[in-house]
Design goal:
By secondary structure, the chain is mainly alpha-helical. Among the domains are: 1-117; 332-373; 378-577. Helix content is 55%, strand content 4%. It contains 24 helices and 6 strands. It is globular. Bound molecules: zinc ion (4 copies). This is Protein unc-79 homolog. InterPro entries: UNC79.
Length: 578
């Protein structure tokens, strides 16, 4: 039998397993039967890779790969195999015996298929693999994240910063959400995010969109990691009180070379994307990861294939890490994930001040680095980014609201949590921790939304409307760490910001406090529930009284503030009368 006919008949076996399991036909194949067939495919694909002739490194960029693939691999039904394997994913949670074996074999063969697939199929693979986190046994989480971070994402997205959007790069937010939502291991969270930070330039947009629109279990890690990797967003770097987030570094990849000098127990420092090196690998599909001793051995023949790999960003410096930095203001605002810069920092992503950032990223080479800058003030963001930032702030401020109102608001979400496997995780997460997340929203609001003339009042009004609901939700805080941390923000930090708004946009403040505020200011609190008109007025008045102790509109000169309060109250009473 030729390799091609054998492959076809084995694909037919897979389809047969699938229909017998789905239709409950006796005898039922076990997960182990299906896994053994899948192992045949992995071995076949690996053996093809080991026969591959030497491909010049420069002809194996992400764009040339399709033509390389056609010219060097035997003509087999790879896409047929790919679809048959994808079909097996749904079987993993329903087979009685061998779930783990089947899940593992599916992930394995998908990894081996990567060099053989055309771009269009490859593009959706990272998201498909990430979605198995929801249905495969949790013991496979590590394999799944490793497959994504050390194989699929570098192989599909390359290292040009994803300037050209593709399906794979556009699914970044969805993939990260899957990892945050279905795993509670902090090292997986940092691993997936740092992986994307090293290949996608505008990853900040994805993080903000997860905070804005993601499920609760993904919002919290997204917010914590945003402030971990962008510490300049934190206005009180010295004040670490109440910050509970602790970074966990992801475990290093170990050397995969067949005859590793250190028997494979050594941390890999280099990676080779080119399948021509597969012959040196034990049982792993490309890319091949090797330790520094093995790199010395292989360098003679393959030096042009090797690239250094990044190490975990276990420290995020707030001062410039360029050893020759001469700037007076050496506060950091950029992080470069390109190895050409990271190599100055022991292969960890490096943090630069303004000046050093410009020096390193002005040249033709430097312009192409994958680096991350601060978020600009909201008024100078693109409309898309403005929307994400505004919605992220609103979502964070809503974290301070009591859970009951969130329950009714996000019924579907909460219900799923209560019956799902994440039940425990969500219950343990206490209300205080959630309320504390709202502080991030305040920081983003005050630091990035400084009021000035000529700004879209819809954005300002919406943010104000939500901020007033936050005052309402945090009016009666317990006298503990969380309560004090939030209360401290009100007395000066927020009030100073509000004073500025008062000077330039008093009319927007007033319009948000009236019994029937403009549409865009109706956000958060009771506005998210199906409240009656009477409740709306009652709640609105209550919210207004929560603000009175903080002198929000009384710091006017000439007593205009008092007159305004009178007028607002009068409007409330008139509304009630009619
Ligand atoms: Zn080695
Ligand atoms: Zn070789
Ligand atoms: Zn510097
Ligand atoms: Zn750089």
């Amino acid at each position: 039998m030729t390799r091609s006919t054998k492959l076809t008949s084995k694909i037919r076996n897979l389809k047969d397993y699938h229909s017998r399991i789905i239709n409950n036909v006796i005898p039922q194949p076990t997960g182990i039967d299906a896994a053994n067939t899948l192992k045949y495919f992995s071995q076949t694909l690996l053996s093809i890779l080991k026969d591959v002739p030497n491909i010049p490194a420069e002809s194996y960029g992400p764009r040339q790969r399709d033509s390389v693939r056609l010219s060097i691999f035997p003509n087999l039904n790879y896409s047929g195999l790919y679809h048959a394997v994808l079909n097996m994913i749904d079987l993993v949670p329903i087979v009685q015996i061998g779930q783990l074996e089947l899940g593992e074999a599916v992930l394995n063969v998908l990894g081996c298929l990567v060099p053989f697939l055309e771009h269009e199929l490859l593009d959706s693979l990272p998201y498909t693999v990430a979605s198995t986190l929801a249905i495969f046994p949790p013991t496979l989480h590590k394999d799944t994240i490793d497959l994504l971070c050390s194989n699929l994402l570098p192989m599909t997205l390359g290292f040009d910063g994803c300037v050209e959007p593709s399906y794979a790069s556009e699914s970044a937010a969805a993939i990260i959400t899957m990892v945050f939502q279905h795993t509670d291991n902090g090292s997986y969270h940092s691993q997936i995010l740092e992986c994307f930070m090293s290949i996608k330039r505008d990853i900040i947009k994805d993080i903000l969109s997860i905070i804005a629109y993601g499920p609760p279990s993904a919002r919290a890690p997204a917010a914590n990691l945003l402030f971990y990797y962008w510490p300049q967003l934190n206005p009180s770097l010295s004040d670490r009180r109440g910050i509970h987030y602790k970074y966990s570094a992801w475990p290093p990849v170990l050397c995969q070379r067949e005859n590793c000098v250190n028997s494979g127990n050594c941390q890999a420092v280099k990676m080779c994307l080119n399948p021509a090196l597969a012959i040196h690998s034990r049982d792993k599909p490309p890319p091949l990861y090797i330790c520094s001793d093995c790199a010395d051995v292989l360098r003679k023949d393959h030096s042009e294939y090797m690239m250094d790999i990044l190490l975990p960003m276990s420290h995020v410096s707030t001062i410039c890490e360029n050893k020759n930095c001469k700037s007076k203001n050496n506060a950091t605002l950029s992080t470069c994930f390109s190895i050409e810069c990271a190599c100055f920092n022991g292969n960890r992503p490096i943090r630069y001040c303004q000046n050093c950032h410009e020096v390193h990223h002005a040249s033709q080479q430097g312009i192409r680095h994958v680096y991350h800058l601060s978020i600009p003030v909201i008024w100078s963001c693109t409309p898309e980014m403005q929307r994400y930032l505004m919605d992220a702030i609103i979502s964070l401020l809503k974290e301070a609201q009591p859970l009951e109102s969130k329950r009714s608001l996000e019924m579907g979400e909460e219900l799923r949590h209560r019956i799902g496997e994440e039940d425990d995780m969500f219950e343990v997460e206490d209300a205080g921790e959630r309320k504390l997340l709202s502080r991030y929203g305040i920081w983003l609001l005050v630091e990035l939304c400084k009021p000035k003339d000529d700004i879209p009042i819809e954005i300002l009004g919406r943010l104000l409307g939500m901020l007033f609901q936050w005052f309402d939700a945090t009016a009666y805080l317990p006298d503990d760490n969380v309560g004090n941390a939030l209360e401290r923000l009100k007395s000066e930090y927020i009030t100073n910001w509000l004073k500025e708004v008062n000077k330039s946009h008093l009319e927007v403040i007033v319009s948000c406090l009236l019994p029937h505020p403009v549409e865009y200011a109706r956000v958060g609190g009771f506005w998210d529930t199906l409240a009656t008109r009477t409740t709306q007025i009652k709640e609105g008045l209550n919210c207004f009284f929560c603000l009175v102790p903080y002198d929000i509109i009384t710091f006017q000169v000439n007593n205009t503030g008092f007159r305004l309060i009178q007028n607002i109250l009068l409007t409330f009473f008139l509304t009630v009368i009619y």
